[in-house]
Design a protein that fits this description.
The complex is a heterodimer.
Chain A lengths: L1 H11 L1 H38 L6 H15 L3 H11 L15 H32 L3 H8 L4 H31 L11 H10 L1 H4 L7 H40 L1
Helix pairs in contact in A: 1-10, 2-3, 2-5, 2-7, 2-8, 3-5, 4-5, 5-7, 6-7, 7-10, 8-10
Chain B lengths: L6 H9 L1 H34 L3 H15 L3 H14 L6 H26 L3 H9 L4 H31 L11 H10 L7 H53 L1
Helix pairs in contact in B: 2-3, 2-5, 2-8, 3-5, 4-5, 5-7, 6-7, 7-9, 8-9
The chains are: A mainly alpha, B mainly alpha.
């Protein structure tokens, strides 16, 4: 098994390993950014879609609904391609930073915009589920205490809705980490893209001059191990929270 | 704006309409065969993980956890390159069907497991006491009850499956997204970005929107009916308690 040894020797190289691990860091940063921004945009979309039911406000409801349905029913990759061509890039981002060239930062920015747009539509539906799970009596109770609608949202409904959707949101982080691998299609610098880049020159790195099956197994196996460790830890956390919430509920009721 | 308002660009897209339809055909074909594989795997592993045998449950668990916690794109690349470099290449479409089928099979299996486990244990015990075997029990008692819980999330998975056919692009596939991309970068047709992306997006939307709407409407009506049943049950027991008191 000379080829396997040669393939494994790639992972012992300091340069390749740190290249991959930086990709992991970028994957995590991209996913977390996308979920946080997605949560902000998604919450607004969910509130508008759920509660703008009166008169002229209904236009906003239709816009939010159209946004959510359009992004939910088309693939992420399409939006990545669209943003690569059409997304404007602010001047201050088009510079080399984080050890990336200016071409890479603009590409990263555009791809992240696509991911945020896509993720926000998914999160909007999750938040809407949370909002619908809040009992209607909460609104009436709030009104009877003289809260305005905005105050009811901020102090009464949203906190309860968010608490109900914490496990689903964490699952969405897992999904987004996996979705961020689609960014590899446009050579953004996250984990999947970096593995692909090493793969395309594997013959040079393993010292044999040719790419073998063992390279595929070692490189993609290593990448899937990294993804698995991160996502499995998260999904264990999700299950832990769900279990404790189920236990807490009857005691509270 | 990438030819959004240029009649020429729209005309080019119209002239090459058969390309887009061919891509859509490939995507649908991929989705159908991947769905069949996903259903087979989903039923198999779903039954395994809701059954009593510990070994089978562990096997199903490993399959589901491993597939759900790694990206589809990675599985696709792995399968494609492993086959290619070992000299067993079976073509991009067939590789895609297998990768998509295995990936969504894990999700289907979770959906089916959740559906089966939602049925109260008393049903299984009652069936056993009446002498039903495993297959009879599943076929006559458990599955008919869980099918309505299973179907809405399953339709959602079909939507995801159709969208995920775009993962073929990374190995140079022939699905709708890949076709669109090679259209906008092609020598003869290049530049008509906006019209091509709009057409491709609309095609996806036409396929996916009815399905995802069906799934959510179905789910809502199911929840409503369940709430009604619970209400009736609660009212029934309350009435019964009152009668008892009198």
């Amino acid at each position: 098994m000379d080829t396997l040894e040669a393939s494994l020797s790639m992972l012992t190289s300091q340069a390749i390993l740190s290249y991959i691990l930086k990709g992991v860091a970028f994957t995590l940063v991209i996913a977390v950014t996308a979920v946080i921004l997605g949560l902000l945009i998604g919450s607004v979309l969910a509130l508008v879609r759920n509660y703008c039911n009166k008169g002229g406000n209904r236009v906003f409801k239709w816009i939010a609904t159209a946004y959510i349905e359009i992004f939910r029913n088309t693939p992420l990759l399409l939006w990545i391609f669209i943003c690569i061509v059409f997304c404007p890039v602010p001047e201050f981002l088009a510079h080399p930073m984080f050890g990336l060239s200016s071409v890479e930062t603009t590409l990263l920015y555009k791809a992240v915009v696509a991911l945020v747009l896509f993720t926000s539509s998914v999160i909007a539906e999750i938040v809407r589920g949370g909002l619908n799970s809040v009992a209607h009596g909460q609104f009436e109770a709030g009104h009877s205490q003289g809260f305005s609608t905005v105050q009811i949202m901020i102090y009464i409904v949203l906190p309860q809705a968010y608490r109900n959707i914490i496990p689903t949101l964490l699952s969405q982080v897992i999904t987004t980490i996996k979705d961020s691998s689609y960014l590899a299609n446009v050579a953004v610098i996250e984990l999947m893209a970096r593995i692909g880049q090493i793969m395309s020159a594997a013959g040079r790195y393993n010292g044999l001059g040719t790419t073998n099956v063992s390279d595929v197994f070692v490189l993609y196996g290593f990448a899937s191990l990294i993804y698995f460790i991160i996502n499995f830890a998260l999904s264990c956390l999700v299950r832990y929270i769900q279990k404790h919430k189920l236990k807490a509920l009857p005691a509270g009721a | 704006m990438g030819g959004l308002f240029s009649a020429d660009a729209w005309e080019t897209v119209w002239r090459y309409r058969s390309t887009f339809l061919h891509g859509l055909g490939n995507t649908v074909q991929l989705a159908v065969f991947a769905l069949l594989l996903a259903l087979v795997l989903g039923i198999l592993f779903g039954l395994m993980s809701s059954g009593g045998k510990k070994v089978l449950r562990a096997v199903a668990r490993i399959y589901v956890e491993f597939i759900q916690n790694t990206p589809l794109l990675l599985q696709m690349c792995f399968l494609y390159y492993a086959l290619a470099f070992s000299g067993h290449s079976i073509g991009i479409l067939r590789t895609g069907m297998i990768a998509l089928g295995v990936y969504h099979g894990a999700y289907m299996s979770e959906v089916i497991r959740a559906g089966i486990q939602a049925i109260p244990k008393g049903q299984t015990e009652a069936a056993q006491s009446q002498g039903f075997g495993y297959i009879g029990r599943m076929y006559y008692i458990i599955l008919p009850q869980s099918i309505k819980i299973i179907l809405p999330p399953m339709v959602n998975q079909v939507v995801n499956l159709i969208k995920n056919t775009s993962c073929l692009y990374i190995v140079g596939g022939a699905d709708l997204i890949s076709v669109t991309y090679s259209f906008v970068t092609g020598a003869n047709t290049g530049g008509a970005y906006a019209p091509a992306y709009i057409v491709s997006g609309v095609l996806f939307f036409i396929v996916c929107f009815p399905l995802s709407t069906l799934a959510s409407v179905w789910e809502i009506s199911l929840k409503k009916r369940e709430a009604q049943v619970n209400k009736n049950l609660a009212a029934g027991t309350a009435a019964g308690a009152e009668e008892g008191m009198v």
